[in-house]
Amino acid sequence: MDTPTDRRVPLRSAPNLRDLGGLRARGGVVRSGAVYRSATLAKLDRDDQTAFERLGISTVYDLRTVGERAAAPDRLPADVRSVGLDVLADSSTDVAAGVGQLGSDPAGLAASLGDGRGIELMRDSYRNIVGLPSALAAYRTFYLDLIDPSRSGAALFHCTTGKDRTGWAAASLLLLLGVGEDDVQADYLETNTDLLPALQPLLAAAAEKGVDTQLLLPVLGVRREYLDAAIDEAHTRFGGVEGYARDGLGLGDADLDALRRRFVLHEG
C-alpha cells in the first residue's frame, strides 16, 4: 500500500473533505486537485467558502435524497454547478439516508437499530447502493458527467455524512482507475478519523436525552465489512466492479478509457 500521508482539506464547516488525488493507480497516480469527496456542504460558512473556491471545484454531485437536499440545501459559491443524484430514491427507509436523524431525532434513529440490527442494516444499505435501479441511474449519470469533455474544473461528490453513498462513489471510482484494494479501503476507513470527531457534539446531546449511543455507532462510522458487502454485491450481480460499470451502469470501453485519461496522471 502506498498511501500519501494526508489528503485532507480541513474545513471546519465541511467535515470529511479530502482529495482523491495522489493514490497510486495502474500506470501512474490519481491526479491531485481533480476530484474530491466530502460530507454535506449545507453548513459551509463564509470563511470556508473562500477556501472552497481556492480548490477550483466547479461541479458538485449531491448524492442525497430529494428530502435530504430540501431539508438542508448545500451552501455553494454562486458559480458552482450542483447536480442532484438521488441514489436511494427507490428505498425510502434505507438507513444510510436516515443517519441525518442524529441531529433531529436520535432516539428514533436508535430505536430503529435495536437488537443489534445496525450492522446488518448497513450491509443491506451498501447492497442497495450498488443494485437499486435509482442507484444505478444516479451513478451512471455521475460517471458520464465526470468524463463530459465540456465539464471543466475540479469535481466534488458528497451525501449527508460523506461515508456510504459517497464511500461507494469513491471506492468504485478508485477501483476503476486501477488503485489497489488496500489503498481503496484505507481511503474508505479514513472517514472514521475525519468524520467521527465532528459528530461528538451530536452524540453527547443524544446521550443527555437518554439515548444509548452504543446503538448509533454502527451507522455513524464505517467498517471494512460494509464496503466488502458492496463489492460482493458488484461481484454477485455483475461479475466485479468493472462488470458493474459496464453492465450495471452501461459504461463502454470508450467511457472507461476517458475516465482513466482524465483522472490518472501516467508515468513515463
Report the biggest beta sheet as strand number plus sense, adding barrel if it closes: 5 strands, mixed
The termini sit apart by 21 Å
Structural class by SSE content: alpha/beta
Q: Which architecture does the CATH hierarchy give at level 2? A: Alpha-Beta Complex
**Beta-strand residue percentage:** 5-15%
Count of the domains: 1
The geometry reads as globular
Average residue-wise pLDDT: 89
Rg calculated over all Cα atoms: 18 Å
CATH topology: Protein-Tyrosine Phosphatase, Chain A
Output the CATH homologous superfamily. Answer: Protein tyrosine phosphatase superfamily
**What is the H/E order?**
EEEEHEHEHHHHHEHHHHHHHE
Please outline the helices and strands.
Layout: E1 18-19, E2 24-25, E3 28-30, E4 35-38, H1 46-54, E5 57-62, H2 66-71, E6 81-84, H3 95-98, H4 101-104, H5 106-111, H6 117-131, H7 133-146, E7 154-158, H8 165-176, H9 181-194, H10 196-208, H11 217-220, H12 224-238, H13 241-248, H14 253-263, E8 264-266
Parallel strand pairs: 4-7, 5-6, 5-7
Antiparallel strand pairs: 1-4, 2-3, 3-8
Helix pairs in contact: 6-7, 6-12, 8-9, 12-13
Structure description:
There is one protein chain. This protein has 14 helices and 8 strands. The protein is of the alpha/beta class. It has a single domain, classed as Protein tyrosine phosphatase superfamily (Protein-Tyrosine Phosphatase, Chain A), CATH 3.90.190. The chain has a 5-stranded mixed β-sheet, with helices on both faces. 43% of the residues are buried.
